[in-house]
Design brief:
Chain lengths: ~475, ~450
């Protein structure tokens, strides 16, 4: 085994160990979305078929979600493995970055450093750590698809297989479609000729991804038309999309790759006219545009940008080494590598440690878990439990009770009203007003989770003294009896 | 031996597939299966024509105004009335199949001289599986006849002109919208060929039609979406549309400039008109199918670098065309009125006569299925009536409600789940509150999410 391969394996182990260190500090999962995946995986494990109509979500709702990720994880449906496998997949992603960077730069050192950087992008850590993240599979598959497009002559078979897989995983497969279309446009603008085989492959993959997405989301498309692309996001969330975003802070979420990627684009496009980097510029640009039009979540967009910049950054790294080689500093090349790696670690790992600690701290608390388990044991099967939007999947997965709101709101027409009602119930001082909403949605229990306390700035229901209608069962659970 | 037998079988299948008779048979089978996937008719118009047919001889005033509703294009109702001794619901389906097959044959004959056989077959298959074509010959009988007459007019324009004259003259009785579209083509054709007789005839027909029909009949409805997948029930297949763009691209390479400008301009005009005049989409579908079929043939005739990708691409395109067609089958099977609504209305049919209040979209069904008078239906143009209905749907003021009930002599209120979801936010809003807590109505039917309340 050559030296570089050993380094690569060491990087993999380092990234994996880093992730697992945080994962094992927590007993549960660190996002509500994780419980959505957990529930679906368990459902498939028990019934083999997937959950299409969910009797609990919103009191009865269709779940339109590509299920390949869940079927894949069913193979490892022991809880501990569900924590580990996504982290292994994300750590394995460094191999994909290495392959792509090596292909673009033809330089192993630059590819190795880029692979290392890709393992420590703060925003990726923030969005994927301990969350059974769908992106643990989407990233490797999508970037392998791009890699096989680059080396189409050798990897046609893989290109076809991966093109089939991607849309069955997640709707972000549309990012791939828009990216390759952007690639065609940029190639035309930059006057790069596109090989016929690549053009054919792009047409094929676009058709395929569109078709599979239309089949999966047919119900939503027919009901909502083109506005499905806005994902029926509640206006409360939609209007706050950019309100809490600090641009500088957000850029720091991408970290080192942002700077290196910027140089990479400059050198690749203007100095060397490297055609293959156009593909990854397209991914970054597409993500940026989609975020700008609020068609994808801001953080998801940043993740795709971060990954693309990381790959583009390899060109800047190679240029740096080329520069060193031409100077008298060549003798100290190894010191520069060590210095570079140290700098990367300093600039990337500390934000990642910060993100990791924050993520683990936001884990489901013992008190909330206890309450949800109490509901499972003691409430009637058809009880409806009120929680915030970020608690919905926990109520479904742990308490196994019906929700008023949860994240599967794609087909819910009155999601805005429901969210307003939820806010009123938690924040209102009037038991009459809250009672009207509670009656409207036939709520039996009100779950005052830590999420709710933080989101709505409350520590109790203001009308909890209304003994006629409200019974306090636990510190964070009320029963509505009117 | 088995190999020889298989070879022969393959040859027979290939010959059969490539024959025009096979296409006609396929068209017949597809329309037959689609129309009889459910026995009840779909939409409002079908029931309107059924009622005209049922009452044509016993009460001819149904054609104009019979107290139950207020007019429309009645040609199909009259045609159906000739078979009123049979089950008109079934007869209307059979007529739609017949006119569908005849229209398909006419379309095939129109394109016969323009394309080679292979392309013609693909174009025909694309057309057959397009939601727009399937809608045309399964939902609205009047549209089926109108499209047939329209194609007859166009096909015989330079053959037997008398047939064109007759079919164009008959068109306004079936659909004014289709008549306008056909007129557009005919006017362009006659002015290009300097056929002043036909031109004068067309203008005269147009003037006569504008006398017979009120301007409100020329509904310039705006399309929300062009494609079936985005919620337009008679929309185009998105994938065939994409292929039609490939078709345009290849035409760009092959045709001379004059012809090319003509085709591109037509495509853009067709596309734009669709957004303002929804009937046009039925004609645009023909153009899209032709260009889509042409694009498909050209796309796969060229040499592909990877034969694997080519094979899969053919598979994907076939799946995507099938997907649109099959999705329409799914929509048709679940389309309104549902079995639950029909059962509720049949329950009303046996009850004593009286006015039934419901949403405007249920008006025709109340007339046709329950055989009762409605307050409003799709033909209602009386603004005061429509405003009154809105007040009744959302108001809870007791005096206003009493006034409304007395003014329109309401005896029943018909409510179903879809109506509830569409009109009210919760179970205690507007009319639902009055029904639930007031003492003016008594629920006499409550099955499968359909409720009927009787005024007491």
């Amino acid at each position: 085994m050559n030296k570089n391969k050993i380094f690569l394996i060491l990087i993999f182990l380092f990234v994996l160990a880093f992730r697992l260190y945080f994962v094992f500090q927590s007993g549960g999962f660190s996002s509500d979305e994780a419980y959505f995946h957990l529930r679906n995986i368990n459902y498939i494990h028990e019934n083999f078929g997937f959950l299409y109509h969910d009797n609990l979500s919103f009191g009865g709702n269709y779940i339109l979600y590509p299920m390949l990720f869940h079927y894949f994880l069913v193979l490892f449906s022991i809880p501990i493995l569900l924590k580990i496998i996504p982290e292994i997949l994300l750590a394995l992603f460094i191999f994909v970055v290495y392959l792509i960077c090596k292909e673009i730069t033809k330089d192993e050192k630059s590819a190795l450093i880029s692979a290392l950087i890709s393992g420590f992008i703060p925003i990726v850590m923030n969005e994927t750590l301990n969350q059974i993240s769908i992106y643990s599979l989407v990233f490797p598959v999508m970037f392998l698809l791009l890699y096989s497009l680059l080396k189409l002559k050798d990897y046609v078979f893989y290109f076809i297989i991966l093109s089939f897989m991607l849309p069955f995983m997640h709707q972000t497969s549309f990012i791939f479609v828009f990216s390759v279309l952007m690639f065609l446009i940029l190639s035309f603008i930059e006057d790069f000729e596109i090989e016929r085989d690549k053009l054919e492959a792009i047409i094929f993959s676009c058709f395929l991804i569109l078709l599979i997405n239309f089949i999966i989301f047919k119900k939503a498309f027919i009901e909502f038309g083109l506005s499905v692309f806005l994902q029926n996001i509640p206006s409360e969330i939609f209007s706050n999309y950019f309100r809490n975003i600090n641009v500088l802070q957000s850029l720091s979420y991408i970290g080192v790759p942002l700077v290196l990627g910027g140089f990479g684009i400059y050198y690749g496009l203007h100095k060397e006219r490297e055609r293959s980097i156009l593909l990854f510029i397209s991914v970054a640009l597409t993500s940026f545009i989609l975020v700008g039009f609020r068609l994808i979540d801001f953080n998801i967009g940043l993740m795709f940008m971060g990954m693309s910049f990381c790959i583009l950054g390899s060109i800047a790294i190679k240029k740096f080494f080329d520069f060193i080689e031409r100077t008298k500093l060549y003798k100290f090349e190894n010191y520069f590598i060590i210095l570079g790696v140290a700098l990367v670690l300093l600039l990337s790992i500390f934000p990642c440690i910060y993100a990791g600690n924050k993520i683990i701290a936001s884990d489901l608390s013992d008190r909330d878990l206890g309450t949800l388990l109490w509901l499972k044991e003691n409430s009637k099967n058809d009880s409806i439990v009120l929680g915030s939007l970020n608690d919905g999947n926990k109520i479904l997965a742990i308490a196994e009770r019906k929700t008023v709101v949860d994240s599967s709101f794609l087909l819910i027409r009155d999601i805005d009203e429901r969210l307003k009602a939820v806010r009123s119930i938690y924040t209102s001082g009037s038991s009459a007003l809250a009672g009207e909403f509670l009656n409207r949605y036939n709520v039996n229990y009100i779950f005052l989770s830590e999420n709710v306390m933080e989101e709505y700035g409350v520590d109790k229901l203001k009308y909890e003294d209304d003994k006629n209608c409200i019974r306090k069962i636990k510190e964070n659970l009320y029963e509505f009896v009117c | 031996m088995i190999k020889t037998a298989l070879g022969k079988l393959k040859k027979i299948c290939t010959n059969l597939y490539a024959s025009e008779k096979f296409l006609i048979l396929l068209c017949f089978l597809i329309l037959l299966v689609l129309n009889f996937i459910r026995l009840s008719n779909v939409g409002e118009d079908a029931y309107y024509y059924n009622r005209i047919a049922d009452n044509l001889f016993s009460n001819p005033s149904v054609l104009f105004h019979d107290g139950l509703n207020s007019g429309g294009e009645v040609g199909f109702g009259v045609l159906l009335g000739l078979f009123s001794f049979l089950n008109v619901g079934i007869v209307s389906k059979i007529l739609m199949i017949i006119f569908g097959v005849l229209s398909f044959i006419l379309f095939y004959k129109i394109i016969k001289d323009k394309f080679e056989k292979k392309t013609r077959i693909i174009i025909s298959l694309f057309l057959l599986l397009s939601p727009t074509f399937l809608y045309l010959f399964s939902v609205n009988g009047s549209y089926s006849v109108a499209m047939f007459l329209s194609l007859t007019t166009l096909y015989f324009l330079n053959k037997k002109k008398i047939v064109s004259y007759i079919s164009l003259a008959l068109l306004p009785f079936f659909s004014v919208g289709f008549f306008i579209c056909s007129l557009l083509f005919v006017l362009i054709y006659s002015s290009r060929k300097r056929d002043y007789y036909f031109l004068s005839f067309s203008v005269l027909l147009m003037i006569l039609t504008s006398f017979i029909y009120k301007p409100s009949s020329f509904v310039f409805s705006k399309l929300d979406s062009m494609f079936f997948i985005f919620g337009n029930t008679f929309g185009l297949s998105l994938f065939v549309f994409i292929l039609s763009l490939f078709g345009l691209f290849y035409l760009f390479k092959e045709l001379k400039r004059k012809k090319l400008i003509y085709i591109y301009l037509s495509f853009i005009l067709f596309y734009l008109i669709n957004y303002f005049f929804s009937y046009f989409i039925f004609y645009f579908n023909f153009l899209v199918s032709i260009l889509g079929g042409y694009g498909f043939i050209k796309l796969f005739e060229r040499k592909w670098e990877s034969s694997d990708i080519k094979k899969w691409m053919v598979f994907i395109v076939i799946c995507s065309v099938l997907f649109s067609g099959l999705s329409f089958f799914g929509w048709y099977a679940r389309a309104m009125p549902t079995e639950e609504i029909i059962n509720g209305l049949l329950f009303l049919k046996d009850k004593e006569n009286g006015v039934v209040f419901s949403d405007i979209s249920r008006g025709v069904w109340i007339n046709s299925i329950a055989d009762k008078e409605n307050v409003v239906d799709k033909f209602t143009r009386n603004k005061t009536k429509i405003e009154d209905v809105q007040k009744f749907l959302y108001g809870i003021n007791e005096k206003e409600i009493d006034y409304f009930i007395a003014k329109y002599h309401i005896k029943y209120v018909f409510i179903d789940k879809e109506m509830k979801d569409k009109l009210w936010k919760n179970d205690e809003e507007g009319l639902l509150y009055v029904l639930k807590f007031g003492k003016k109505f008594k629920r006499v039917y409550n099955e499968d999410n359909v409720e009927i309340w009787k005024h007491i």
